[in-house]
Automatic annotation (TrEMBL):
Protein name (database record): Ubiquitin-conjugating enzyme
Domain of life where this protein originates: Eukaryota
InterPro entries: UBC, UBQ-conjugating_enzyme/RWD
PROSITE patterns assigned: UBC_2 (PS50127)
Organism of this sequence: Pseudovirgaria hyperparasitica
Residues annotated as domain UBC core: 12-149
SMART domains for the chain: UBCc
Pfam families linked: UQ_con
PANTHER family per the UniProt record, alphabetical: UBIQUITIN-CONJUGATING ENZYME E2
Gene3D superfamilies: Ubiquitin Conjugating Enzyme
Length: 149
């Protein structure tokens, strides 16, 4: 007896989530920590620490990652829940990352890589990727819509 495709997809997602968490645990970094709540594996919470040698060096920012049902075909959303003032972060905590634009996203992209991209943006803000530009419909130099984390 074969599983219905919806059950197979849920099973693959569960394995993918666990693999992602295992990989994050293996990454030797002080920059972030993430965990999932068993009640909702589609929502992860964690902390992102401000990169050293940046204005955010001693900050700790509560972060939330929300995965769509279609993950990994569609990108997750990453949001700072702790207030952070940064040219690429809007008032709701969403951050612009090129990797999260639909035309840039790839199912082989890992959450660890996305979090390292967050570190790069915090360390070296791209002024052409500022929130003001995103609100005009530009993000990461692309004119086809927001790439919000």
């Amino acid at each position: 007896m074969t599983m219905p495709s919806e059950e197979r997809h849920a099973s693959r997602q569960k394995r993918r989530f666990q693999t992602e968490l295992d990989r994050l645990a293996e990454v030797p970094t002080d920059f972030f920590s993430m965990e999932t709540k068993q009640a909702n594996p589609y929502a992860w919470v964690g902390t992102v620490k401000g990169p050293s040698h940046s204005p955010y060096a001693h900050g700790k920012y509560k972060t939330r990652i929300e995965f769509p049902q279609e993950y990994p075909r569609l990108p997750p959303k990453i949001k700072f829940e702790t207030k952070i003032y940064h040219p690429c972060v809007d008032e709701e905590g969403s951050i612009a990352l090129r990797a999260l634009l639909l035309h840039e996203w790839s199912p082989v992209m890992t959450i660890g890589k996305l979090l390292l991209d967050v570190e790069v943006v915090l360390n070296d803000p791209e002024t052409d990727n500022a929130v003001v530009e995103r609100k005009k419909g530009y993000c990461c130099g692309a004119a086809d819509g927001p790439g919000r984390v």
